[in-house]
Amino acid sequence: MNEFSDDINFIHRSSDDTDKEFHATVGHIEDILIEDKKFLELHNDFMEKHWQEFEESEENKFIYTDIFKEYQATIEKYIEEELGKKVKDFNMLAFEEELKKRPNELDSGIFDLLSTFTDFIQFKMKFLDYKEGYERGKHD
């Protein structure tokens, strides 16, 4: 098998099967993001560790790239591993492609979080929002 075989299998399934698989995967993601204590701790610790580095400006610091890579290596990897335990033959790239076709079928908060894995601007905005909340006392 090659890297494209999973994508081809995903496309050739009936639309009912694809819909069921997509919605089941979304349900598992919601469970991870809302109920998985290990994920919540991992995510909160990551945000706490790095929020002070971010500033509201057009210019991006070099350290943002390092933090973004670390975020992908920890947060995204954790979600992908957990989904791999719950969804047979889970493929994050195939799921992300399917997600692009169905942006309105996902809660906006979940969609926003998932987009932080691939969209640097969304990632930076997440930290700036967190920082603003922290400075207002929301994360005490």
TrEMBL record:
GO biological process, one term: maintenance of protein location in nucleus
Entry GO CC: centrosome; cilium; mitochondrial intermembrane space; nucleus
Key words, A-Z: Cell projection, Cilium, Cytoplasm, Cytoskeleton, Mitochondrion, Nucleus
One Pfam family linked to the record: ARL2_Bind_BART
Record has Cytoplasm as a keyword: yes
Main location: cytoplasm
Cited PANTHER family: ADP-RIBOSYLATION FACTOR-LIKE PROTEIN 2-BINDING PROTEIN
Family membership: Belongs to the ARL2BP family.
Task of the protein: Plays a role as an effector of the ADP-ribosylation factor-like protein 2, ARL2.
Protein's name in the database: ADP-ribosylation factor-like protein 2-binding protein
